[in-house]
Structures are given as structure tokens and as C-alpha cells.
């Protein structure tokens, strides 16, 4: 848990780099794709995570992602396709969008420690 990690060593662990970008021009209705109303600039939840509110913050994020049919990106139900698969580009786009939402819901000084995760699932596991 983040608060325990902060208490132990005062810093966050970095994982691999993630590109955070999204194009909201897609109109696909599949749950593993972004929708027209999905934007990385739109806040996912109103409360920012800090070292004292991980449990309510994580519940709020899960509820918000569930409402957007994107919960599978953090729990692994929407698996990363092979980079050569037709669906990879759309999966990557939506994965980056979900990562951007999560990172923007964390206090900036803490979020910077998580920007190097290679996927939203990895990001979520690091935050836990």
C-alpha cells in the first residue's frame, strides 16, 4: 500500500515508462476502447490520493472505472494483445487513457513516482 511504502522509505518504486496520450476521436462502443466522452483531461474522481486515503481513493477509482467499462484494465480482465494484433493500437490507446485518469487522481508529488509503468495493470499493482 502506498502509505506503508512512504512510511518505510519516503519514495515510490519506478517501473517501466508509459506514454500517456489519448485521442478522443474514436467512437467505438467496445468496452476495451475509449468513447467520445472519454478524455485524459477529465477527472476520474474528485479526491486526490495521498498517503492517508488509499482505501477510499482506490474504491472510488474502481467504481468510476467500472462505470466506464474500464475496470478490466487494472484487474487484467482486458488483456494486452500481441503488439502485432489488429486490436493492439486501440488497446494501447485506451490503456494510456486509463493510466492518465489514475495518475491525474494522485497528488502530483506522488504521481511522478508511477509514470514509468508499462501498463495500467502494472501501474495499479505498483500503487497497491
Automatic annotation (TrEMBL):
Pfam families: Retrotran_gag_3. Residues 36-82 form the Retrotransposon Copia-like N-terminal domain. InterPro entries: Copia-like_N (IPR029472). It comes from the Eukaryota. PANTHER family: CCHC-TYPE DOMAIN-CONTAINING PROTEIN, OS01G0909600 PROTEIN. This is Retrotransposon Copia-like N-terminal domain-containing protein.
